Amino acid sequence: MARSESWRYEKLTWPEINEAVKQERVVVCPVGSTEQHGPHLPLDVDVVCPCGVAEAAARQIPDQVLVMHPFVHGYAAHVMDFPGTTNIHWEHFIKCIVDIGASLAYHGFKKIVFLNGHGSNAPNLDLAARRVNLETDAECAACSWWQLLSVDPDFLPSWRESRFPGGIAHACELETSVYLYLAEDDVRTELIADGEIAYHRYGSDFYYTDLFGHGPGNVTSWTASYSDTGVLGEATLATREKGERAVREAARQLARMITEFRARPKPPRGDHHAAPPTMPMPWGQAARPNVHGDVHGDLSRGG
Questions:
Q1: Is residue 2 one of the residues assigned to a domain?
Q2: Does some domain include residue 63?
Q3: Contact 79, 35 (CB under 8 A)
Q4: pLDDT confidence of 18, banded at 50, 70, 90?
Q5: Helix %, strand %, coil % of the chain (to 5)
Q6: Cα–Cα distance for residue pair 92/120, rounded to 1 Å
Q7: Domain count of the chain?
Q8: With a threshold of 0.90, does the pTM exceed it?
Q9: Burial class (CB in 10 A: 0-12, 13-18, 19+), 260
Q10: How confident is the model at residue 286 (pLDDT cuts 50, 70, 90)?
């Protein structure tokens, strides 16, 4: 029986992990959510999509990267009016993601990418990545997979047919297309229908949403308050062919990003205090060992 691809993190042995560290591989952790995606898409859309992109990228640069098992639950409190959704408290979510990053850094991986698949994970994932950067000696990037479709300015204008804003938001033209490509048998194609975002009726210059642009004055609240079906966008414009194009483009750009990230030297930290600080860094959290095994105290615990 053939052995799994060499870039699958969970299929390696511990000696092989040591070898991967020596090779300075970048570790990609897909981070998703288990939540409603309308009547036509399964609950795992936000897991399947980033995994599909990460795996397609890994096949392009198999010697540079490892792809972890996905983190399958996210911050989805606002979607709990729809059955099936699971929610991880935002603080627990951040702590779990930081622990994953810190574990990887402890073992010697110094370049980490959290590849996001769920819009409402983004602010918490950004904070988690920042904490990994400040609290370990690794570098960590957080990236939502659909952002990679904006790197080439010519791609989206040639791909998108739905209106902006609102045509691509949730269970929409994009997510439905990508899921059709990655797992078509699980799509209830006979139930595909467009879903209007109710507050777009206001025609506001400040209050609108789309995966590729949000208004500056958005109010993010209960999904069920502005959608009866959970579909936000023009899902009827989705096709499997569009999904293939989107996955190929996102994977191409992710592979480019990983290659650049891997080669880029980490900039040195500069400390501009006239005199060395006389107290521990005010992390505001439990004491955490640094890379030398010393413990930085938490000010709330008396340092």
A1: no
A2: yes
A3: yes
A4: very high
A5: 45, 10, 45
A6: 14
A7: 1
A8: yes
A9: exposed
A10: very low
